[in-house]
């Protein structure tokens, strides 16, 4: 497959307290299968859907680490990207760190406190499949410092931005209400289009692409005052599914939690979830939305 363009999401992995419990949960939820764990790399375990590499799971090396899904953005030069991260006000956690012949990894924190990864591909290119049921579909950054992080990601990856409506913070708890960037009225009766217009969610487009929603590779939204103060800025990973409601039902049966009721948006029917160990993610059925928003491009 073609190499991922600079700054395009190219990989996700989850750090979990119990790897085997994670394999059971996601195997039954998405129909995923799993490769052999790699002791040399902390029992990092590749995930497959239909024989195609779509993600990875790994046990947390330290129980104090958060239980999360991590996002990685593609780069052709990890060292240069790391330098831009520092220059733009971010902090490096690890790297650039070569991982055998697989590639070079950087993990970092943006000025708003959200953790993300950067991946320079070697023999591991990233997703072999994305934008289809059972695979990665979309990423959203939730932050309390939108102006600083917009400038940061523009400096690091050259993102263009598409602002929809006037700027407004997300209200409510994570997953409480409409798709990130949409506020729920007390009656729950506001239309989706009106909610998005009021919220002013910002879409990111990769360098060299027109700053138009159809080229978006991710989004950013501001966290409102009703988010718990202890909740850090974070990325929410979306996976594509064929039936949002069925996946929500199955997640609950497997010990997961719904963070909102399934609901329709212009981009598909979605629900935010927590897995059986507390990692947050979302699923979206894009079949009614017309087209996928993920790009890879050379």
CA radius of gyration is 18 Å
Contiguous helical run count = 5
Largest sheet: 9 strands, mixed
Tertiary shape: globular
End-to-end Cα distance, whole Å, is 10 Å
Proportion of residues in helical segments: 10-25%
The CATH superfamily of the largest domain is identified as 2,3-Dihydroxybiphenyl 1,2-Dioxygenase, domain 1
Number of strands: 17
Structural class: alpha+beta
Query: How many distinct folded domains?
Result: 2
Q: Which residues form runs of ≥5 with pLDDT under 50?
A: 167-200, 290-298
Q: Helices and strands, in N-to-C order?
A: EHEEEEHEEEEHEHEEEHEEEE
Query: What share of residues are in beta strands?
Result: 25-35%
CATH topology term of the largest domain: 2,3-Dihydroxybiphenyl 1,2-Dioxygenase, domain 1
Mean pLDDT: 86
CATH class of the largest domain: Alpha Beta
CATH architecture of the largest domain: Roll
What does the model show?
The protein has 298 residues and is an alpha+beta fold. The protein folds into two domains: 9-121, 2,3-Dihydroxybiphenyl 1,2-Dioxygenase, domain 1 (Roll), CATH 3.10.180.10; 136-285, 2,3-Dihydroxybiphenyl 1,2-Dioxygenase, domain 1 (Roll), CATH 3.10.180. The protein has five helices and 17 strands. Strands 9, 10, 11, 12, 13, 14, 15, 16 and 17 form a nine-stranded mixed β-sheet that branches. An eight-stranded mixed β-sheet has the order 2-3-4-1-5-8-7-6, covered by helices on one side. A hairpin with a 5-residue loop joins strand 16 (268-274) and strand 17 (280-285). It is globular, with a radius of gyration of 18 Å. The chain starts with 8 loop residues before the first strand and ends in a 13-residue tail after the last strand.
């Amino acid at each position: 497959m073609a190499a991922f363009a600079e700054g395009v999401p190219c990989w996700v992995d989850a750090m979990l307290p119990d790897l085997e419990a994670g394999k059971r949960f996601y195997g039954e939820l998405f129909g995923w299968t799993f490769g052999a764990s790699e002791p040399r790399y902390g029992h990092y375990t590749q995930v497959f859907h239909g024989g195609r590499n779509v993600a990875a799971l790994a046990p947390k090396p330290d129980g104090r680490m958060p239980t999360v899904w991590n996002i990685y953005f593609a780069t052709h030069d990890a060292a240069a990207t790391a330098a831009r991260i520092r220059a733009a006000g971010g902090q490096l956690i690890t790297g650039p760190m070569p991982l055998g012949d697989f590639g070079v990894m950087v993990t970092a924190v943006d000025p708003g406190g959200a953790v993300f990864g950067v991946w320079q591909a070697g023999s591991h290119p990233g997703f072999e499949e994305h934008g289809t049921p059972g695979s990665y579909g979309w990423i959203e950054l939730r932050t309390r410092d939108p102006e600083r992080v917009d400038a940061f990601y523009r400096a690091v990856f050259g993102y263009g931005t598409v602002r929809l409506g006037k700027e407004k913070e997300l209200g409510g708890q994570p997953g409480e209400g409409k798709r990130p960037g949409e506020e729920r009225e007390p009656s729950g009766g506001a239309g989706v289009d009106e909610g998005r217009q009021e919220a002013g969610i910002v879409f990111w487009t990769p360098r060299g692409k027109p700053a138009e929603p159809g080229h978006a590779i991710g989004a950013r939204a501001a966290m409102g005052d009703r988010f718990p103060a202890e909740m850090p800025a974070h990325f929410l990973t979306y996976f594509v599914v064929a039936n949002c409601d069925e996946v929500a039902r199955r997640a609950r049966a497997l010990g997961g939690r719904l963070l909102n009721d399934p609901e329709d948006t212009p981009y598909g029917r979605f629900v935010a979830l927590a897995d059986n160990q507390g990692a947050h993610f979302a699923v979206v059925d894009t079949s009614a939305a017309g087209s996928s928003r993920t790009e890879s491009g050379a």
